[in-house]
Structures are given as structure tokens and as C-alpha cells.
Amino acid sequence: MTNPQRTTMPFAGRPGTGPSIGSPSAGSPSSGRGTGGAGQSRGTQPAELDDVPVHTQVWCSVVMVPLASFMCMAQTSFFSQNFDQNSAGFLLMILCLLVAMPSGFLMLARSEYPEPTFWIACALVALLPYDSLIVLMAMSALLARRSDRRTGIRAVAAGTLVTVWSQVRDAIQPPNASLWHVVFAKPRTNTEEEPIIMLAEEPTIVITAVVTALVASAIAVFVGLHIRSRARLRTANAVASAATDHAATLQTDLNNQQLADAIAAEAHDTLAHSLSLMALNASALKAEADRLGDSPEARALASKAEDIRRQSAGALDEAHAIIDMLRNPQQAWEQLAPSDDTSLTRESLDALIADARNSGTQLNTWIDIQQLSGLDETIGKVAYRAIQEGLTNARRHAPGAPVSLEVTAGPAAGVHLHLSNPMTQLEGEVPDTARPGTMPPASIPIRTPIPIRTPIPVPTTPSSTPTSASSSTSAAMSGAASTPDGRRATPYHDGSVSSHTVPRAAPHAVDRPTHGVGLPGLAARARSVGGQCRYGMDDRHLFHVDVQLPWRG
Q1: What is the DSSP string of 103-146?
Q2: Comparing 226-240, 387-401, 445-459, which segment has the lowest mean pLDDT?
């Protein structure tokens, strides 16, 4: 009648999945539910442990509801033969028949309320001339869904008594008002011409009814216990499977942590050591430059040495931070969350551009950002990392070459970043993305080369206001602003900039597996937030990185 439901029980000990062994909610005395808890006698079970997860099948309900109603109506129709049509008893039978018609729908509540369903069915059958089939169905449902011994004993005793009473009540009725007499009557005798002829004595009919009631009760009990055992078996299998999965997860986490610890130790012994030596050598170089006197060459050398020392010290701090994240993965997620230093803000963009120029990069910028304070932090972090990666890639593969940076951000157009720089070959090296056999270079037609012009300063107004005023002021000071490709750009009344020939990188094959570093890693980050990243070289040997990200507030 019912089938057990496949459920995955929470495994004790896994964080966030349920009470662990020994916790107050798992049956300790402090919970008031365990053995010996306050207000509960020894040997009783909590209501949660009494429930058995059994799923009610739709086809069972489709069969049980009409069958229960039909048997109640059939028993009532036979019982009504004891009364005349004009008597009060016959009117009562009509009312019982009206109640019997929807009585089968009581079985729909057997899943959520098995005990009330059973006791209501017992009351109907005991007080009204109904058949006991509805009681047997409710008793099976109750035994399947409740494992408490006292509840089961009460249900079996009450269900058996009501079933026997229902069958005996029908068996002692007159032959024309009894279903059992019809069973034992001679065929074709209960007609107008020939009265009913019984093939068995009254005691035989009553004893048969009692035996049948007992057998039917036993079958109902066995069916309920069988369904309960199947449900418990499925639950035990689910718990065992959850325990196995949890053990495998713990082993995987342990292996990953061991690998992370090994990587952290190796990074500490190699990378951190090298950066420390670089900072130490830069300090020594600055000290030697200070001894050369106050000449312009000595001051320039000392300034460069100080920059190298400062950048080495910053890189060493970042290396230590990454090593700490490897050793403490639980704190790594907090450190990887977007912050003011790693998200696209006016201050972080100012600092990023200043660091690039201080390192000797000739950087031309075109900035048009509006309502930057309303940008989602995740999108802002991807945009910041995109600019950082583009500048790093240009310094690495084209040292000394001018770099053009365009940043456009607003709710209407989203976030658009474009970096371009002429390619220079140092000792025959080219970027990994432009080497034959890795990723095909994109063919991007450029009408004019990127000019070397006076950089437009990044606006430093508060991030809650748009930068249209700053862009217009910069354009007015320089006569007319130019986009990174050398075209004139005219500010509109709303502060946005018209740029019709900004070079765009052709679509790049970034759907292949990547190593998660460099430009392929940047492309993966852009895709993770619903954007796209394109990069490649044009026919004029200019390398472009173009990132388009959606705007999310």
C-alpha cells in the first residue's frame, strides 16, 4: 500500500548537517528528550525517533479511497433492510450512507496524521454500520509510520476488536440484511418467488466472520510491519552512504590540506627567500647610491633602488599572505572576499595607475566612470584584477612600450576595460597567448596607431558621484581629449564619451581548458560573472585586452 521513501539522513559530526553524537539535541539529559531526561520516563522514545519516513504512493490512494467508501456503503445498504422506508431508522441509514460516500477520503491523511486517521476510522466503524476495511487500511498505515511499541500495541488491539465487532454485527443480522448471509446463501434463492435458503447454520456463519476478521487483522499488521522494515532499511542504507561520502570527503580534504601545506612550505623556502634577498639587495644599492654624492644620477639611482625595495617588500607581504591562506583554508575565503583594495574604486584605480607609472610604464588613460559606488563587489573585483593583469602582462612582455588604458563603467553600458600596447620582442620572446600552437592571434584592424600623449588623470572625486565633470574638465584643459586610438572624443551633456574607433579584440578561443593564470585565468573569471574577455594581436603588432562585464548593483 505504501513504499518507503529514499531519504538521506544527516551524518553525525558533519558541520551544518544535524546534531552530532553527544550534542544536547542528540538525546543528552540536558535536552529533555533522551533516556532519563526531565519529564520523560526511561524507555520512551522522542517523537522524532518514533516517526518512520514512509512515502505515500499516489496509486495506493487512488485504490484505497474508492474501495473504502464502497465497502462502507455496501454494508450500510444491507443494514438498512432492517427498517421500513417510512421509519426513523431508515432515515438514519440514509444519513449513514451520505457519510459513507466521502469516508474513503479519510485515508488521504494517513501520511501526515496516521494516529488521528486510525482512531477516527475506528469510531466510524464502531458506531455506524460500516465495513472494517477502512480500519484495517488505517492500522497498516499507522504501524508503518510509527515505531513506538505502545502505540503499536494499542493500534493492533483496537483495530482487531473493531474489525471483529464489525463482522460479527453483520453476521447476526437477518439473512436479507447481512452480507455474510448472502455469501452462505443458496444461489438464485433470495428472490420474490423463492425465499433465501442458507447453506450453513448461524453459528458457522458467526465463527467464519470472526476467523476472517482475525486473519484480516493479522494481514494488516504484517503489511504495516513489512513497510516499516523496508523504510528502516532504506534509512540505514542512506546513513551508511552518507557516512561513506563523509569519510571520503574528509580524506580528500586531508589530502588537499597536506598538498597545500607542502606548497606553502616550498613557497616560503623559495619565493619568500628570493623576495627577501631582492629587498635586501635593493637596500644595499640605495646605500651605495647615497655614498656617490648629490649628483642627479645618484639621486635617480637611489630613487629606483627605493622603488625596488618598496615593491619587493610589498611582494613579500603578499607572498606571506598567500602562504597563510594555504595553511589556513578556513580563513582564506574571508581574505579572498572583495575589499576596498581589491575592488574597482576610484582610490584603488588611482593607486593601481600610480604604481604602474612609478614603475616606469608610460601609461595613457581614458577614464569614464559613473555611479561606481553602486557596482557589485564581485564585478568590481574582477574588473580590478583585469586591469592589474593587463598592466602586468604589458610590463612583462613589452617592457618600455607605451600602454593605453580605457575604463568605462556605468549602469547603462556595464563595465568595459580595454588595454593595448605595441609588441616588443625581448630576446626573441613573445607572450604565451601569441605563440604559434597555443592560441591564434586575433586580426584587429586599427586605423591609426596609438599615440603618445599626456595622460589624463584619474578623477579622485567621491565614488558616489559620476565623473562626467572631471572628464569634461580634463578635456577642456587639454583642448580636446583623445581616445586610446588617437581619435577625438566629444563629451556629451551627460558626461559620457563618444569613441567610435576604439580597437576591439577579436573573439578568442577561451573555452578550452586553462591553467587559471594570466589571461586565460582572467577570461575564466570574466565568464564566471557573465562577462567576456577577448585578447590578441592585430596586423600592426598591437596587443589588445578587451573585457566586458555586466553591471550588477
Answers
A1: HGGGGGGTTT-HHHHHHHHHHHHHHSS--THHHHHHHHHHHHHB
A2: 445-459
Contacts of 239 (CB under 8 A, 6+ apart): 9, 11
The residue behind cell 439473512 is 175
What is the distance between the alpha carbons of residues 391 and 403, in angstroms, rounded to a whole number?
A: 8
The set of residues, in sequence order, having a beta carbon less than 8 Å from that of 422 and lying 6+ positions away, is: 398, 401, 402, 449, 450, 541, 542, 543
DSSP per position, 201-238: -HHHHHHHHHHHHHHHHHHHHHHHHHHHHHHHHHHHHH
Report the 3 state secondary structure along 333-344.
Answer: HHHHCCCCCCCC
CB 110 within 8 A of CB 143: no
pLDDT tens-digit readout, 391-401: 988 888 888 88
Coil, helix or strand for 432? helix
C-alpha cell at 484: 586610446
Closest CA to 490 of 506, 470, 476, 511: 476
The segment with the largest mean pLDDT, out of 39-43, 208-212, 420-424, is: 208-212
| pLDDT bracket for residue 487 (50, 70, 90) | very low
Task: Tally Cβ neighbours within 10 Å of residue 21.
Answer: 9
187: left (phi over 0), alpha (psi -120 to 50) or beta: beta
Instruction: Quickly count: other Cβ atoms within 10 Å of residue 235's Cβ.
Output: 18
Between CA 467 and CA 367 the distance in angstroms is: 8
Is the alpha carbon torsion for 367, 370, 374, 375 positive or negative?
A: negative
Q: Which carries the bigger pLDDT value, residue 47 or residue 337? A: 337
Residues 93-131: pLDDT tens digits? 999 999 999 999 999 999 899 999 999 999 999 999 999
